[in-house]
Amino acid sequence: MKTTTDRLHYIDVAKGILIVLVVIHHIPQIIKGQVGISDGFWAGVGFLNIFYASWFMPAFFFLSGMCSNFDRQFPDFLRRNVKSLLIPAVVLPIVGTWLLHLAQLDLHPSSYLHLDLRRIVLYGSWCWFLPALFVARLVYWTIHHWLQGSAGRIIACLTLLVVACALKQFDVVPNFWMHRHALAMVLYIALGQCCRQHSIRDCYYYIGGGLFLLLTLVLQLGHFHYCWITNAFRVEVVQIPLHLALCLTGICLVMTIARLISSNALLELLGRNSLYIYVFQYMFLQMLIGRLHDVIADANMLACCLLLMLFIAATLAASLLFSWIMHRPYLRYCIGEF
């Protein structure tokens, strides 16, 4: 039987794998935007999206559901989520931007005073994931307390997924506080809670992971269009069955890999700091790739491979340093640790 400690090990491993995928996912996007290269080696890196873009963000919500206690009273639950999600959602992007300006020896006051307050007020943050997770957790807390039984809760969450896809498809209301993303992701929090309450045998994760690989092969051979929810919401109502199939089997795949690895110091370190890495990595990659613009443009295949490894390693190292800085005395208050 797995102990609680064992369980926490593989959950951190899963988060570590997912945050590495987030970094890899962003590299070709930024290179296309800043360097203008979208073919060759970097197109190949972008092609890897078919193996994880459809499920790696829902997997974070799934793991959040596995690790959360929704039986708390609402005032306590709200206070904890404001501290752990809402305060970091506002503070971390601002401090991260300031640190990057300092690293580039930019001491001009306007660089530090120019803040997109409209985006913070209307959308919760510059990082969609944190406000979406905050809203999704509050919505699921409500479902958890109003409905009894896993089946009813899952049906309610499926209904919210349909509503979210309809809101995106018809685009009538602006996506305030990333509510479309939040409503779509409540289902995966609910599934994570189900796995927390009912022990899932490893063989089911293995079967699901194998089905994901088979499904990906079929979609490639059939030239089907993929659908996913990251910062870009690319799931229409008619695509919900495909979205669910990809997400559920993809989550099983990463859980399979995490259970097989079981314990890994580096991945667990990345997993425990995944929130800080998530916030900082995109800004750091933009700065790093911008500095190496000419090198990237002239790089051959071998140089591109080395650059990819550099981007991943440097981004993770810098993000871990950012996390370490934010956990220093006094700065910890800025991220809700009080």
Give the helices and strands, then pairings.
Elements: H1 4-34, H2 40-47, H3 56-67, H4 74-103, H5 109-113, H6 117-123, H7 129-146, H8 150-170, H9 179-197, H10 202-221, E1 228-229, E2 233-234, H11 240-261, H12 265-272, H13 274-291, H14 293-298, H15 301-326
Antiparallel strand pairs: 1-2
Helix pairs in contact: 1-2, 1-3, 1-11, 1-12, 1-13, 1-15, 3-9, 3-11, 4-7, 4-13, 7-9, 8-9, 10-11, 13-15
Polypeptide structure, described:
The chain has about 350 residues and is mainly α. It has one domain. The chain is about 75% helix and about 0% strand. It is built from 15 helices and 2 strands. The chain has a two-stranded antiparallel sheet with strand order 1-2. Strand 1 and strand 2 form a beta hairpin. Helix 3 packs across helix 11, helix 4 runs antiparallel to helix 7 and helix 10 packs across helix 11. The longest helix is centred in the first third of the chain and has 31 residues. The chain is globular, with a radius of gyration of 20 Å. The N terminus is likely disordered.
